[in-house]
Amino acid sequence: MHAQLNRRQVLRAGAAVLALPWLESLARGQEAGPPQRIINVCTSFGLYGPSFFPKSAGREYESSEYLQVLGDLRDQFTVFSGISHPEIGGDHASEACFLTTAKHPTQPGFRNTVSMDVVASQHVAGATRFPLMTLSTQDGSPLSYTPTGAGIPALSRPSQIYANMFLAGGKNDVAKELDRLRRGRSMLDRMRERLAALSRTVSPYDQQQIADYTEAVRNLEKQLVAEEQWVHQPKPTVDYPQPNENYPSPFSDRSNSIGRARILMDLAKLAVQTDSTRVVSIFIKGMDEKPPIDGVSEGHHGLSHHGRNPEKIAQLKIIEKEKVTAFRDFLASLRDTREAGGSLLDSTQVLIGSNLGDASGHGTSNLPVLLAGGGYRHGQHIAGDVQNNTPLGKVFVNMLQRFGVETDQFGSGSGTINGLV
Known about the structure:
The chain is of the alpha/beta class. The chain has helices at 7-11, 49-52, 65-70, 116-123, 158-166, 171-199, 204-230, 257-273, 300-304, 310-335, 393-403; strands at 37-43, 77-81, 83-84, 133-136, 279-284, 338-339, 342-343, 348-353, 369-373, 380-383, 390-391, 409-410, 413-414. The radius of gyration is 22 Å and the shape is globular. This is DUF1552 domain-containing protein.
């Protein structure tokens, strides 16, 4: 008979506990096994299609040049082709729609919609210190959007991300944080009262705008209450040094986007492994500069606009194979981390893809996408129609359902992907 334990008691053991994983003895009554997690990775300049997509469908497909890099992980992922978000267009503006499926981002008056990661995070709100972690290799446009279409700024400084998760402040720091949260709640209370008064004096259209904004304020209030409950709870300790932005860190070199992505993926793994969060999104921003990779003499952005020039394509493939190698190492680290008779990858859905298909022409159809982990029966290529693409939102429905969200629709996706079980 096991003694009754709770997570706070174990965490108080201090430095003796390193990267505390999900433990059966600490599971809540309704948790029959490790919790489901979601990690989304978007790389903004696409992946060269002829080197990414297999030529045949099904389970007997022959691995493409890039998929060969994933090697022994073949049975841990499903690769998709003939898939995209319908009616996106918008070239690089499509970044904002990768997790939302919202249409026509370049049109005047465009308003984004809620992103898949936010829907997932709302489902598990309060279960972890951070409902959602959205990260980026550079400052810029976000991947994550609230129900009212507001962008959630991504964190791009690894030292701060690490500190938020693992570094405990002193008593004065805790007191300041509590004061900040309580002042925030007080301000939101006053704002809600003023919005209610204003709503009685404006047009019906503006009333709807105020109603949407009031809902966002209400959600923020709930978030502040949840954060206040976590302030006094100790943070986990991990056997991983705090990263920084100083030389020779990749974050001291703007051109080293892949090195930055590796650090963010390491932090994402630690975040889900310690149950600091269950939803992470990572944006690998494209770079204009020449990356520090042997054999590459031009900037990444310029190479992505290769115009079918063989010399440019050859250099582009060097960059992208380096990136796929980083994905491979990340997935392997999740696979090799054991928990509850399985692996961390078994309980973590990892979506890897891009908002661009043919980046040379800013095309947004036929996106390179694969889904790893999460307990699916992988090892297959699900091929859609390259002329009439399957909505990527259908994959999002699969992911949300597996995460525990009861839905048959997300954005432009209605129902699930056939064969993804």
